[in-house]
């Protein structure tokens, strides 16, 4: 039984778990549309500020592609399985040098053993809480491209996990670089053909090596760091509220509703705010936590544009 079924009935879950090919297509188009709009912003007003905004927005939407790949891994991006796997692989996973099938196997293990010794994501949260100096060093490595280059060289060495060194790793990476490389290079080529030769480097590779690494680390900290190491779904994962700026830069596509996702993992991301509201309406309380109520407060995410 999934954790959510201890608190929600099948009648509650069934409409929430409904998938939509139309919504899946909109999310993928939205993600790539934001990337195109960010490049267009610089093309119309070329200056340092618009270049910085473009790098941040594109890096955040590279995270968005990872989130949509995550949806596809749960068969929640599209109702049609073929669309789910094909688009999830070619338009979400491979452009960020990831592999949907490898990630699906890995990630379902994370759900099965969340915050236990068998959780393959445990290395991403064990380092926290940490000192301010340590966090500053991590963020500096991310934003200067050191983390991204380390991971890229690790992939070239056909290595999936770099966490063994005690440092951060994006464990959704493709175990084989060459099949994913053409789709990673394609956006760079298109950008360079539409603009100057360096646009692909500046607006795809640079965000990938810098801001993308930074926001992925922030997401891991928000979701599973400094939580209880137990099988209690109200204690081993965290939901965070996100306003418009946070949704644009660090929490696209409702990824901040992470507790709800762990409770019923096949609910599509765009339904998670409804699930969150339903849990609050039912006054769900923490299991084994002395009756502490599920984090309450105004739902500032809603179903506004992701």
Provide a compact summary of the structure.
With 306 residues, this protein is mainly alpha-helical. It is 57% helix and 0% strand.
Describe this structure in words.
With 306 residues, the chain is an all-alpha fold. The chain has one domain. Helix content is 57%, strand content 0%. The chain has 14 helices and no strands. The radius of gyration is 19 Å and the shape is globular. The relative contact order is 0.15. Mean pLDDT is 85; it is low at 159-169 and 285-305.
Comma- or semicolon-separated keywords:
306 residues, mainly alpha, 14 helices, 57% helix, 0% strand
Write the topology of this structure:
Layout: H1 10-16, H2 21-44, H3 48-73, H4 81-93, H5 100-112, H6 122-125, H7 132-143, H8 146-156, H9 177-194, H10 199-209, H11 211-224, H12 244-249, H13 258-263, H14 272-281
Helix pairs in contact: 2-3, 3-4, 3-5, 3-10, 3-11, 9-10
